[in-house]
Design brief:
The complex is a heterodimer of chains A (about 325) and B (about 425).
Chain A: H1 2-31, H2 38-49, H3 53-70, H4 72-81, H5 83-105, H6 111-138, H7 151-155, H8 162-184, H9 190-217, H10 225-231, H11 233-254, H12 258-280, E1 283-287, E2 290-293, H13 301-330
Helix pairs in contact in A: 1-3, 1-6, 1-8, 1-12, 1-13, 3-4, 3-13, 5-6, 6-8, 8-9, 8-12, 10-11, 11-12
Chain B: H1 3-42, H2 45-79, H3 81-114, H4 121-150, E1 156-158, E2 161-163, H5 167-171, H6 176-204, H7 209-244, H8 246-253, E3 259-260, E4 264-266, E5 269-271, E6 276-278, E7 281-283, H9 286-292, E8 298-299, H10 313-343, H11 348-357, H12 360-374, E9 379-381, E10 385-386, H13 387-390, H14 397-429
Antiparallel strand pairs in B: 1-2, 3-8, 4-7, 5-6, 9-10
The chains are: A mainly alpha (about 325), B mainly alpha (about 425).
């Protein structure tokens, strides 16, 4: 039961980062200077994101529901210790979704208000990506202290520091990277295609750079990432594979194999999450008192059975519908609006 | 503001904000599908225009509903970890089903909004209808979870720990049905009447008369039918509350002393100090009759409960009076509308009344939730856990409150402004 639930958590997280993340990445890209391509880029992003962003956002909801039903202690510990970053993330999510929809559905499309929406959409996307990274970094630092009621130690220290900042920046770079790779296949306009390829190259460089900073920042943390990854052959293999994927990715980009570039880029991001998983599973978080494992903190079996049942039956409906959604809108030979 | 008050204010405000968009998200797709169906059947382009106009409203309002709903799912833990630690495992089940329905709704809305040229017309129409159906179903699940807080079941509570958890029994608690029925009707009623009111106003002002009259008629099918059905659902809910939560009923009615042939007081204000109702019109025996179907039945009063277990009396009583007052008025409006509609012509005074009543459904819906939530206090899980024992230990929740107060007020203002632009654009197109 718990294994199935942990798989669902891992899958939801992966899909949220890949699909939801690229939607945030699109917002980040719109913050960058685009010159005369700005309008065309906006149209492509509207068309690419419009039909799917709400479904992509649902992976986060699913994650929250699995946590609070199946692992209530883990959920509440997180929500208490990380109240501030969670709140920051929520503000970003609210502003991002509203600004994106307002921009598209404002009956009067005038440059001034459109600029405001774009600016809000971009900033809130960057903001949300950043805080999600901070939250992710805070889980396993061993600083979360459910016993403490000291304002600094209990509610600031868990997410404060260079390492969470670095992970925040890393996530923002990953999102922008995914968005640029995905967007290459969303337009036939050669100039715009070139721009997205160029952006993807830059973002790929930034991902590597930010990744390096994360590794460096982790030297002062509970888990020294370079040591952890170099010592264990499995983790080393993951890093090796991710490096190999870089080469493969750019070969496919050069050959204009849209679908394959998307798969390889997604694979790279999946490897990062797998690396994280290998490092910490089956612990959901590590507090000052020790790790909280999914296996120790699960709800009673009757609840888990119902949760698994709901997820399995839900999957029977959700996956075919999602497949249909993406087939209708992401088929390259489909008619254009 | 102390932390508990701030957390309650935040939750009340977040829910009060979200519930408007949730009600719209559950109802508007049905209106939209009805217009779309008429277009596909009759090929009258006015219905197409109407469908697209409502669709744009749905797109904007659904997005705000989805993000404010996300906030709520986090706030359950951010504000009430003491509750979620125990309740998550017991009452997570309706949330997991709600999540599934909501997921499907998000997929359906993507297909409908952007699929005009990509799907066969009737397949496309079906996706629009599915937005409504999945939204409606997810609403039922969420209300079932709230029902459990009023009528907790499916577990044993020993020394502050839940055991023998049965999530199915918890989901189908004794309050899920009457609460869901009452709420889903309220959503149809409030949104149907609000939409009808807007179009009635535009119609009366001479703007695009054909479009607005058609819109009004579709919206009133839902608004009038739900308004006529609602008093029956409300009465049924009242009977259930009398059986399940006598303290809530006593607070609603300002009923202090347990008595037979208990009176129903219209208006008035309960005074907790003197334990009397100030003012109002007392109708002898009516409360006994309504609560227990017997004019001589005994109705439990607040005297049966320790003072610290009383809900806030004035808020609960006034909110209830507002809800029932409006509900009665709207039922009358519904009957009048059906009467005149069957005779063929809608007199202008009736349309002006529809305009005047446009916001009332939403007011009643909010008032009803105030009755449910404030009337349950001081409990978060009725009779099991007190709200003060569930609140987060995080200090300074008041800033959380101000942050979302500001954010949501701006969002509300922006939404209203956008919808106004939307309506004006369509009216201009029709040369009104």
């Amino acid at each position: 039961m718990i294994d199935i639930l942990v798989s669902f958590i891992a899958a939801s997280l992966l899909l949220y980062v890949l699909l939801g993340g690229s939607d945030f990445g699109a917002g980040i890209i719109e913050l960058l200077p685009a010159g005369r391509l700005r309008e065309a880029q906006k149209e492509v992003i509207n068309r690419a994101m419009g039909p799917v962003w709400e479904a992509n956002h649902m992976w986060l909801i699913l994650l929250v529901v699995i946590l609070f039903m199946g692992f209530p202690t883990i959920f509440t510990t997180l929500m208490i210790a990380l109240h501030i970053p969670m709140l920051a993330l929520l503000v970003g999510i609210v502003v991002r979704g509203s600004a994106f929809v307002f921009r598209h559905y404002d009956a009067v499309q005038e440059p001034k208000t459109q600029r405001i929406y774009t600016w809000l959409f971009g900033l809130s996307s960057l903001w949300s990506a950043f805080w999600l990274g901070i939250i992710a970094a805070s889980l396993n630092r061993g600083i979360i202290d459910p016993a403490s009621r000291d304002v600094w130690a209990a509610w600031f220290a868990p997410w404060w520091g260079v390492y969470p900042l670095a992970v925040g920046a890393f996530v923002a770079c990953i999102y922008a990277f995914l968005a640029s790779i995905y967007l290459v296949g969303e337009t036939e306009e050669p100039e715009l295609k070139r721009r997205f390829v160029r952006l993807a190259a830059w973002c790929n460089g930034l991902v590597v750079l930010a990744g390096g900073v994360v590794f460096a920042a982790s030297l002062g943390e509970r888990d020294n990432l370079p040591a952890a990854f170099l010592r264990d052959p499995l983790k080393l293999a993951i890093v090796g594979l991710a490096t190999l994927f870089f080469v493969v990715l750019w070969v496919f980009v050069a050959k204009r194999r849209t679908m394959l570039t998307r798969i390889v880029a997604s694979g790279q991001v999946a490897l990062i999450l797998i690396g994280w998983y290998v490092l910490y599973a089956p612990n959901a978080l590590i507090t000052a008192q020790g790790p909280l494992s999914f296996y120790d903190e699960a709800a009673p079996p009757a609840t888990l059975r119902q949760l698994v049942l709901a997820l399995l039956i839900g999957s029977v409906f959700i996956f075919p519908s999602l497949f249909y959604l993406f087939r209708v809108f992401k088929r390259s030979d489909g008619p254009k609006e | 503001m102390d932390n508990l008050t701030a957390a309650r204010a935040t939750m009340a405000f977040s829910l009060g904000f979200h519930i408007i968009f949730a009600a719209i998200g559950m109802t508007m797709p049905f209106l939209m599908s009805a217009a779309h169906w008429l277009y596909l059947k009759k090929k009258d382009p006015v219905y197409l225009e109407l469908t697209k106009m409502w669709m744009k409203g749905v797109a904007i309002l659904f997005a705000v509903g989805a993000v404010s709903g996300t906030v709520l799912s986090f706030e359950l833990g951010l504000l009430w970890p003491g509750f979620m630690r125990h309740a998550g495992a017991i009452i997570g089940m309706p949330f997991s089903w709600e999540g599934t329905a909501f997921f499907l709704e998000a997929i359906a809305i993507g297909l409908f909004l952007y699929g005009w040229k990509r799907m066969k017309p009737w397949v496309h129409w079906t996706t629009g209808l599915l937005v409504g159906v999945t939204g409606f179903v997810s609403g039922i699940f969420v209300v079932a979870a709230n029902g459990w807080m009023n009528a907790p079941s499916g577990f044993d509570w020993v020394d502050g720990v839940a055991s023998n958890i049965d999530p199915v029994k918890a989901m189908f608690n004794q309050a899920w049905f009457h609460q869901s029925l009452h709420m889903q009707l309220a959503a149809l009623q409030a949104v149907g009447l609000a939409v009808a009111g807007i179009h009635a106003w535009l119609y009366l002002r001479g703007r695009a008369p054909d479009l607005n009259l058609k819109a009004l008629r579709i919206a009133m099918v839902f608004g009038a039918a739900a308004s006529i059905a609602q008093p029956f659902a409300g009465h049924f809910a009242g009977e259930r509350v009398a059986a399940l939560q006598p303290a809530k009923l006593a607070a609603i009615e300002g009923h202090f002393e347990t008595s037979r042939r208990a009176p129903l007081t219209l208006g008035g204000l309960p005074d907790a100090e003197t334990r009397t109702m100030k003012g109002g019109l007392a109708i002898p025996g009516l409360l006994s009759l309504l609560a227990h179907r017997d004019i001589n039945a005994e109705v439990i009063g607040l005297d049966q409960f320790p003072r610290e277990d009383w809900p806030p009396l004035v808020i609960t009583h006034v909110a209830f009076q507002v809800m029932v007052g409006i509900g009665s008025l709207l039922a009358l409006l519904g009957v009048l509308y059906v009467w005149f509609r069957r005779r063929g012509a809608l007199p202008r005074w009736l349309l002006w009344t529809v305009v005047a009543c446009a916001p009332l459904g939403m007011v009643a819906l909010e008032a009803g939730w105030v009755v449910t939530e404030v009337g349950r206090q001081p409990w978060i899980i009725y009779g099991i856990m007190r709200t003060k024992d569930a609140v987060t230990p995080v200090p300074g929740i008041v800033y959380h409150f101000y942050l979302f107060l500001g954010l949501y007020l701006m969002l509300a203002a922006a939404t209203v402004w956008l919808l106004r632009r939307q309506i004006l654009a369509v009216q201009q197109k029709f040369g009104g």
